[in-house]
Fold these 2 entries.
Entry 1:
Amino acid sequence: MKRTERRTLRHDSVPMRLYHEAKRLGAWDPRALALDQDARDWARFTVTERDVLLRLTALFQAAEESMTRDLLPLLMTVVREDRLEEELFLTTFLSEEAKHTEFFRRILDEVCRQSGDLERYQTPSFRKLFSEKLPAAMRGLLADASPAAQAQALVTYTLVGEGVLGEAGYHVFTAALEHGGLMPGFREGLRLARADEDRHMAYGLHLLSRLVAEGEAVWGVIQGRMDDLLPDTLGVVTEFFQPYDAMPFGLTLDAVIEYAMEKFAGRWASLEEARERARAPRAAPTPEARVRDIRAWLGEQVRPAHVAVSMDGTGKIRTFRMGSTALLVTQEVLEHHPAPEIIAALTAHAVPQRLRDQAPVRLTCLRVHGRIVVQSPDPG
Ligand SMILES: [Fe+2]
Ligand SMILES: [Fe+2]
C-alpha cells in the first residue's frame, strides 16, 4: 500500500478545514450539560406533549446508535484509498456520533426517566432504514468500496439519515422547545449536536460531489438510491405523526416534510452543480463555468450559508451573495483568469475568513494592470 508520511497535510482542503473546526467546536461533553431544570420542565408538559418528545428522543437515540455503529467501514474505505485528510476528519466524526448517542441516552435516562426498552417507538419504516438499509449499505463497503457503493452508502447516511430525517427531527424539537424557554440543557445539547451534523453533512456532500465528478455513472446510482429510499424516508415522518389525533406544539406533517425537503433540495442542487462542472468541457472554460467553480468553492468555504449568484444590468459584474455578505467579481476577471487562479487570489486576500465573519461586508474582486485585486469599501 502507498503511504503518505512524507507529504504534508493539505490544511486548506475541505476535510482538514472541517477537522480543525471539529477540534474547536465539537469538543463538548454531554455529561457537562446541566439538566436539573430540564427534569423539572419535563413534568410541566401535557401527557401528549411528553409522548411526542419521548418518541422523538427515543428515535434519535436509536438512529445515533446506528450512525455510530455503521460509520467505521467508511473510515476504513478512506484509509484504503490513502486519503489521510479525510481519515483525520472521520475520527472526529465518529467520536461525535458516539457523543450524540450518549447525549440522547442521557436525556432519556435523566429527563424522561425511561431506562427501559423504547423499541416500541420504532415504526416499520424506521426499522427498515436504520436496522436494515443503513447497516447494509455501510457494512457493504467492507466487501465492495467501489464509487457506486460509496455513493449508495453516503446517500443513505448523509442525505437521508443526517439530512432529511435529522433535519426533520431537529425541526420538531425546535418547534416544541423554542417557545417558553423550556429544557435549556436539552436545547443546548441539540444546538451543539446539530452543529456537529452540519460538518458531517458538509463532508458527505464533499465526498459525493467528488464521486460524481470522477464518474458520470455515479449520478444514476445516487438518483436510483434516492428513489429507493424516499418512500421509507417519508414513511418515518408520516408514521411519527400517526398516533396523534391532534399534534401538539402547532406541528403539522406537511410543514415538517416541507422543511426537510427544502433543506434536501439545496443539497441536491449542489450535487447537480458538481455534475455540471464535471461535464463542462475542460478545454476552454467559459466565464459561466468559472462562476460555477467559484460558487462551489465559496459554498464549501462559507458553509452552511447558501451562495446566490446574480448579474448586474450591464453584465459586467457578478455578485455572489451569502446572507448579509457579498463578493462582487467583474466580468473582466472572469474572462481573463481561470477559476483556480481567481480562487488562489481570493484565498490570498483572506476572502473566505472575511465572509465567514458574517458581519455585513461587500468585497470587490477586479482586474488591475493584468492582476487580480480584492478591495473592500472600508480601507485598511
Ligand atoms: Fe449524529
Ligand atoms: Fe452525524
Entry 2:
Amino acid sequence: MQPQSDSQAATRFRQYNLTEIPQVYAWFERMRTNQPAIYDEQMHMWQVFRYEDVSAVVTDHSRFSSKPLGLVGSFFQDTLVAKDPPEHRKLRNLVNQAFTPRAVARLSDRITRVTQELLDEVRATGKMDIVSDMAFPLPAKVIAELLGVPSEDWNIFQKWARIGDTESLMGSERSMQEEMSDYFSQLLAERRRSPREDLISALSIAEVDGERLSEQELVSFCTLLLAAGQETTKNLIANFIVCVTDHPELLERLRQEPDLMPTAIEEVLRYLPPVWLLFRMTTTDVELGGQHIPANQFVLAWLASANRDPAQFANPDQFDIQRASNRHMTFGHGIHFCVGAPLARLEAKIVLPMMLEQLKGLQRVEGVPVMADMGIVFVIRSLPVTFQAEG
Ligand code: HEM
C-alpha cells in the first residue's frame, strides 16, 4: 500500500486487510516525527499525531470545540458529544444521573447470560464468526436491555448497525435516522405512561435545576447510545480476539491467569483501538506541533497515533498485556470522557474470559483475509475462527 500523499488522511478512509495495519502505524510514526501537525488539503482540516497534541485537542474545550460533531443530520446532532460547556454540563449531569454504576452493574448477569446463550449456539460446531456470532449481538442486546428496548426488538439494531460508520455519522443516512427517531419517540411515550426500571424511563424523569431533557434531546441521546456504544464495543471484542490470536502463547497464558484480563483489555484498547480519531474545531488561534492554526479550523486528532507515541509509552509497538502505566486515549479525555467506558469494560471482562475458557484451541481460519473499514470507528466486518467442538 503506497499512500497518494504522506499527509492526506482522506486516503486512509478505506477498507484495509488487517495485514496492512502496521503500515498505517508506520505512517503515524513518520508523521509524529516529521510533521506532527499538518493541513490536509483534501479534507480541509488539520491533523495531529502526537500524544501531547491529541490530548490537548481532545481535552481543552475552550480552544477546541466539539460543535463540528453536531453537523446537521449527523447522529451526534443535539447530543452531549457535540456540545461545549455550559450546555454540555447540563446534559452530562442528567446522563450521569441515569447512567449510574448501579445501573451498569445491574447488567452483569444479563451479559453473562447472553454470552452463554451465544456460546451454546456455536460450541458443538467448532467454528464461529466472532463478529456476527458474538461481538455484534452481545453489545446490541446489552444496550437494548440498558435502554429498555423490548427483547423481541433487539434485532432492529442489526439494520441500524451501520450507524457507527463515518458516512452515517457525518449525515448521509437520513432515512435510517428518522426511522430510529420514530422508534424511540414511541418507546419514550410508552415509558412516560408506564415507567420501568430502565434508562429511558430514568432519563425521562431525571432533572437538573428543575430542568428535564426535551423529547428531541432524549431521542437523540438514545440514537447516540446506539451509535457510540454498539460498534465500539463490538470492535473491542473483535480486536481483542485479533490481538490474542496473533499471539497464541498469550491465549493460554490468559486462560491460566485470568487476573491478567483487565490489563490485557486496556492493552487491546491502546494497541488496536475501536475508535481511531476524534474531530474538533478551533475557537481561537492555536499553536500545535510547531504550527500556527487559525480559529474556526477543523482538527482531526488521531487517538490511534497518540496511543503509540514513544514519548508516552515505553516500547509502544509491543503488545504487552501487563503494561503498567497505560493512559491510552481510546475513551477520550476530559469532560467528554466516554460515558459508556465502565459498561464496555464490564462487557469485555465478562465475555472474553468466557470465550477463552469455553473455546479451546481457538484460532483464526488461515488464508481468510480479515478486512476492516477505517472510519471514526475501526470496523472489522468478519472474523472466522475454529476451536475444538464440544459435545
Ligand atoms: C470500547 C468501547 C467504546 C469506546 C472505544 C468509546 C469511545 C468514546 C470516545 C473516544 C468518546 C469521546 C468523544 C469525544 O471526546 O468527542 C466517547 C464518548 C461517549 N461514549 Fe463511548 N466508547 C465506547 C463505548 C461506549 C458505550 C458502551 C456507550 C454507551 C452505552 C458509550 C457512550 C458514549 C457517550 C454517550 C459519549 C459522549 C460523552 C460526552 O460527550 O460527554 N460509549 N466514547
